[in-house]
Amino acid sequence: MSESFIKAISASEIAPGGMKALELEGNEIVICNSGGKYYAIQRRCGHMNAPLEMGTLDGIYLTCPMHCAQFDVTNGEALSGPVPSAIGNEIPPPFLGKYLQNIGMIMKNVRTETIRTYTTKLEAGWIQIKVK
Amino acid sequence: MSQHIVNVESRKKSLHYFYEKVVMPLGFKFTPDKELMNFLLEQEVILEGKHGIPFCPCQPLRNDRIRDMQIVCPCIPFHRKHFNEIKRCWCGLFVHKDVLDPDKLQQLPPKGGEQ
Asked: pLDDT-based confidence at B82, cuts 50/70/90?
C-alpha cells in the first residue's frame, strides 16, 4: 500500500522540536519533529482553528499559539482547553464590557476537539504521509 | 470558563512532563509517594477543566488574579523561601531532591506570617 503515501518534504528541513506546515491534496498538515520521530497532524487547532505550526512543540506536546490549548501529536488527543486571558481585575469600558460578555457567552460553547493525525513514514530521508 | 472534557490520565501524564522541567532546576522533584502524586495531579486536571488553569489543589482561590496566579502549579517560584524551609510544597506534590520519605517532613508555618 506504499502508493497511498505521498512524498512530503525532506527530513532535513525540520530540526528536532520544529514544525512545518504544508498542503497535501487539499489537506492542511503540520509535520512535527519530536526528537527525530515525525508526526503529521491537521494544521488547524481543535479549538478555534489557529495555525498550529505557529505554536510550541515540546516533546510530543503541542501548544496552540492562540489560546494555549494543548495536544498530543502522536494521536491528536486534546489535552487541555484554552487558558483564560489575562484581562486582570480592571473593569473594562462599557462598550468593551458588552463585547467581552458576548464573546464569553459564545466561547462557553466552544469545545476543544481532538485533531486529526496522519500516518507518516521516513524513506530515504523523505517524510511520506498517508493522507487518505 | 467552559468545562473541557479531557482524558484525565493523558492530561496527568502531560502535566507531569511539563512540571518536571520546571521543578528540577529549582531543586525539587515529584514526591516519591505515587498515590499522593496521582491524586494531586488528578485534582489539578479537574481544576484545570473548571477554571482553565491547573491551580494548586490545596489552596483556596481568592478571586484576585495576582494572588491566584501565585498558586498555579508548580507554585514553587512564588513561595520558594517557605518551601525550602519545609522541603516540600504545601500540597506535597513536590519535595526537595534529597527527600526520600516525605512523611517525615514537618509542616511549619512560614516565618513572618502568611505568604
From this structure: very high
Reported ipTM: the value is: 0.82
Please check whether residue B11 touches A, CB under 8 A: yes
Distance from CA of B35 to the nearest CA of A (A): 22
Tell me whether residues A79 and B18 touch, CB distance under 8 A.
Answer: no
From chain A, pick out residues whose CB is under 8 angstroms from the CB of B1: 81, 84, 108
| Fold topology of B9-99 | Ferredoxin Thioredoxin Reductase (3.90.460)
Averaged pLDDT score across all residues of chain A: 92
Q: What angle do CA B8, A79, B18 make, to 5 degrees?
A: 90
What does the alpha-carbon distance between residue A13 and residue B14 come to, in Å, rounded to a whole number?
A: 27
Instruction: State residue A80 phi and psi, 5-degree precision.
Output: -155, 155
Q: Give the model confidence (pLDDT) of A89-118 as tens digits.
A: 678 888 888 888 898 888 888 999 999 999
Interchain proximity A88–B65, CB inside 8 Å: yes
Domain that holds residue A17: 2-130
What distance in Å separates the CA atoms of residue B95 and residue A73, rounded to the nearest whole number? Answer: 31
CATH of the domain at A56: 2.102.10.10
What single-letter amino acid sits at B49? G
What is the pLDDT at residue B3? 52
A33 near B CB under 8 A:
no
